[in-house]
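Re: that chain you flagged

S.,

Sorry for the slow reply, it's been a week of failed gels. I finally had a moment to sit down with the sequence you sent. For the record, here it is as I used it:
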Amino acid sequence: MERSPALSDHPRRPTTRSVSTPVRARDARIDAFRGLALIMILIDHMPGNPWEALTIRNIGFSDAAEAFFIMSGIAAGIAYSPAIIRWLNHDTRLWDAVGPMWKRAWKLYTVHILLTVVAIALYAWAAEMFLREEFRIVHNLGILFDRPGPAMIGMVTLGYQIGYVNILPTYMVLLIIGPMVIAAGLYAPRLTILAAFALWLFAGAMQLNLPNNPGGGGWFFNPFTWQFIFVIGLIIGISHRTNSRFFPLSPLMFKIALGFLIFAFAWRYMPVLGPFMNHKMSQLGALGAPANIVTHDKSMLALPRLLHAVALVYVLASLPVVSRICAHRAAAPLRLMGRQGLLVFGLGTAIALFGQILMVIEPHVMWLPWVLPVVGAGLCYGAAVIADTAKHQFHGKAKGQTFSTGAPVSIT
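Prediction finished late last night. Pasting the structure tokens below so you have them in one place:
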């Protein structure tokens, strides 16, 4: 099998004496797949449109959410590990190492609050404009109208989350602990992965989650389980930064990963295999196996979803043709949206919620589900073009003033 030119077999472990942080070209695969994941999130967040058939969740168990977390982890490992390395080498202060990730977490918090307010405003407007009271209770909104005081407190403390606007809080938590995880991953990547796996397993067995308040229950994206796929991404990103590869490029591993993807597809669609496998998982659950082992639960990042996502990443990362496709000019719109990920995610979320309302109000307009996702993707691309142009103009002026920000690769 042909070896990817940017990847070798073994990660380099840092020492506190000297750790090199080579400057390497931006990997087109990261931006392209992140852009693709964001478009799939936009599509899937307008249930009932025909484009859903083309998203990742139709070929197995995972969907764009797993892709979002693992790609964000990879990008975070690439972007932020050099600052952690400089601190470990005693070249910078501790704040210089942790500050960038924590500042990013704060930015995500502000975006999350903004999107939550936008969602509330959209559905409140729809309920008033179209005299449809169901818009006041969808996506966990009923609590806000019944108990506005506790709900508002819960919103700012992240205990109250609205459906379809609930992925960023978990990502914030993971960015806050990210510096510690990167430091551990630099010294002991395999032990770090093992610890993340142990926490994932323990959280599933003990039903450990952060609480929702008000409303009860836990976070939809359970940070104690979803951290595992993010940590996998971080370790991949750290290795990628040093021109190495954490998961060895092996023909045997490639065949196993590809075989599991085929098996997962058959599990979903074969009339006999699917019920048989689900029944066996149920039997394991009756014997006391952790819930995230024996279910397909998304909140807990259940094992079938996790394995499907990791296998898919491994297969795609092992194929040199994927790198060429992602670097092709035809994939430039995806790469651009991936680079402007936070903007695309925020705008796409607002568009998707508005699209949901329109599709409920006009269920008999047959062309609406076909057009809304396409228009939404076009608007996201247009916003990304504008933001990217403004960024380059700003950097051009900054260079003219001999000023440099030294900012790392942006994420999300």
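What I noticed first: Confidence is low (pLDDT under 50) at residues 1-18, 402-412.

Talk soon,
D.
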